Amino acid sequence: MHELSIAVAVVDQVESAVREHGAGTARVRSLTLRVGELSGVVPRALDFSFGVAAEGTVLADARLLIETVEGRAHCEGCGRATATGMPPDLWCGACSRAMSLTGGRELEIAQVVLDDVLQEQGDGDRREEDVPEASHVPHR
User: Fold this and answer.
1) Is the dihedral of CA 69, 140, 112, 53 positive or negative?
2) Sign of CA dihedral 72, 74, 80, 84
3) Which of 120, 116, 88 is nearest to 102 (CA)?
4) Residue 56 region, left (φ>0) first, then alpha (ψ -120 to 50), else beta?
5) What's the pLDDT tens digit per position in 62-113?
6) What global pTM score does this model have?
7) How far from chain centre, in Å, is Cα 10?
8) What is Dmax (Cα atoms) for the chain?
9) 3-state SS string over the chain?
10) Is 36 within 8 Å of 107 (Cβ atoms)?
11) Whole-angstrom Cα distance, residue 135 to residue 33?
């Protein structure tokens, strides 16, 4: 399960960024990842792995939100842009040429919300349910 190594790398990157930006004692409230449907990452496995990787870190109580990015392709021949589907169809339905992938392989940290940041912005009364939801399988 390579999702565990991905989760460990994400936790390490976020912890480093929190330290680097001088928010040493801040706790991460939520973490949003953008995961392409063609990336080979299984969202449920990543969600589980994140819980394991985050134990004992500033992300220990963080809510993981995963935004799924659909596979997209573009045809250089006729200019058509379309969703690839799963499994991906990379042949243009309009002109029968091969299409180039333009999206769906993403694996990126989209947003990190810190408890201290919310309080500094005068938003101390903000609750966890106020953090925007992402489209994904069950959230932590």
Assistant:
1) negative
2) negative
3) 88
4) left
5) 999 999 999 999 999 999 999 999 999 999 999 999 999 999 999 999 999 9
6) 0.76
7) 10
8) 57
9) CCHHHHHHHHHHHHHHHHHHCCCCCCCEEEEEEEEECCCCCCHHHHHHHHHHHHCCCCCCCCEEEEEEECCEEECCCCCCEEECCCCCCCECCCCCCECEEEECCCEEEEEEEEHHHHHHCCCCCCCHHHCCCCCCCCCC
10) yes
11) 11
* Cβ atoms of residues 46 and 35 within 8 Å: yes
- Residue carrying the six token digits 């609750």: 127
Structure tokens at 120: 């500094």
In total, the chain counts a number of residues equal to: 140
Residue in the block written with tokens 């999702």: 3
